[in-house]
Design goal:
alpha/beta; six-stranded mixed sheet; five-stranded parallel sheet; 14 helices; globular
Length: 439
Amino acid sequence: MSATFTEAVLEQAVIDKFVTEGYEHVSGDDLHRELTDVLIEDDLSAFLAAKYASEGITASEIDSIIRSLRYASATPIYSANRSMFLRMVEGETFVREDRSAKDFHLRLIDFDKTDNKNIVKIVNQMTIKGPKTTRRPDAIVYVNGLPVVVMEFKSAIKEDTTIHDAYVQITTRYMRDIPELFKYNCFAVLSDGVNTKAGSIFTDYEYFFSWRRIEETDRPSDGIDTLDTMVKGMFRKERLYDIIHNFIYFPDTDNGKKMKIVASYPQYFAARKLLANVLTHQKPLGDGKGGTYFGTTGCGKSFIMLFLTRLIMHEQNLHSPTVLLITDRSDLDDQLSRLFLNAKRFIGDKTVVEMDSRVQLQDVLAKTASGGVYLTTIQKFADEFGELSSRQNIICISDEAHRTSNNLDMKLVVKSDEVLKRYGFATFLHTALPQATYI
């Protein structure tokens, strides 16, 4: 590698790739702002004016929205980041200054897939003044004037620096010295040119991952190519909006753990492909085979199931679906239950319930008209229920399905005095829910 491969060269290479993706590049020194300001208020104002022009939003109302963002507390960082993220993703009811005008739902990022009005920029070398000192992050990705991604670069040719130093720079020095920046942060990116990783600012370094594919059919990239796949795969504008909207998880209650999960590329592609497969194979036109995901231990299958459930529950073509999450052991059921019962807001349905008995399961499935996420073990389908529901928008997601959910055929058990017919759990499950789609 050439000795001229400096952090400045890497920084410019990254900026060039972002410009190719349609981002506007701005030097931090060219922004007209106070050094304490981390918002690009002109962009935020322009976005709000364009997005809500049909609502008759006024300049005074736009100013009040920007003030509410600027003066929202930045400490403690975790709770401030969580609150601001929910405002960005879920939006809020905006109460009009003119009480005779109709209130409307306000979002700071436009997640419309076809005609969004977002303003995206990459800003480098922006000096930010904190309470005690100033810092100068290498690059920041802005959406509508909000600093959603912080990037830090280190040169791979320097023996005394590594990509881990970039992690420490962001999660220790920057978060300590310029906390205002991280109030709006969705995730961070680290790169030394050879290795490029992304992750939550609240997670350990080991959970920062490369984004190794642009499309899910591509062969995974390694080394220096991961810089290209990161920018083209993760930061393609519609992909970035999708990740922010559907693939970053905060629990309902954190219990002091500071959990924030940003999906890895296998989790992202798996959830998206499974949803597409469900829509293709849903009965009555399809065969009900929603798809199969094979993953190694530790690949985050539970989070794939969580991300997929959110996508399913928000999919308009499924018409308020019901999701049944099925495990084959009580310890898996407990693990999945803890995750899902603490994710009602993320899933988008207040009804997330663990089934305690076969009777409860039977009653719920027979009476539920729409919606709801229900967790159960496959053993509750050990006997014939009969048909419980003929709805076509019930989605069954089975964990460790190879052990229990492919046994649909009848088996003959020969004893000394009789021949018995035996059926697996899956047979009774499919009998109970004949029009469901199975993942």
